[in-house]
Design a protein that fits this description.
There is one protein chain. This protein has two helices and no strands. The radius of gyration is 23 Å and the shape is elongated. It has a domain at 39-74. By secondary structure, it is mainly alpha-helical.
Length: 74
């Protein structure tokens, strides 16, 4: 599928921030994390961290031997 990915790359919008775009996907440099700082949302990251922590705690609770596996949770 290299032809498809190259075709898609050629149709991407060109950067208008002063950076030159590569003529081909094969010779494009790998992106750096600093290029994506403008898309970060600290509020959403906090919410995701809370949800992930809650899921981990629930899963660890279910994995304990004291938890009845075949009874309804009320």
């Amino acid at each position: 599928m290299p032809y498809l990915s190259e075709e898609l790359y050629q149709h991407l919008p060109k950067p208008n921030n002063g950076q030159s775009s590569s003529p081909s996907l094969c010779v494009t440099s790998y992106s750096h994390s600093s290029e994506f700082n403008q898309y970060r949302n600290k509020t959403i990251e906090k919410y995701i961290a809370i949800i992930t922590d809650a899921i981990k705690k629930i899963n660890s609770h279910y994995s304990t031997p004291e938890f009845p596996r075949h009874e309804a949770v009320t």
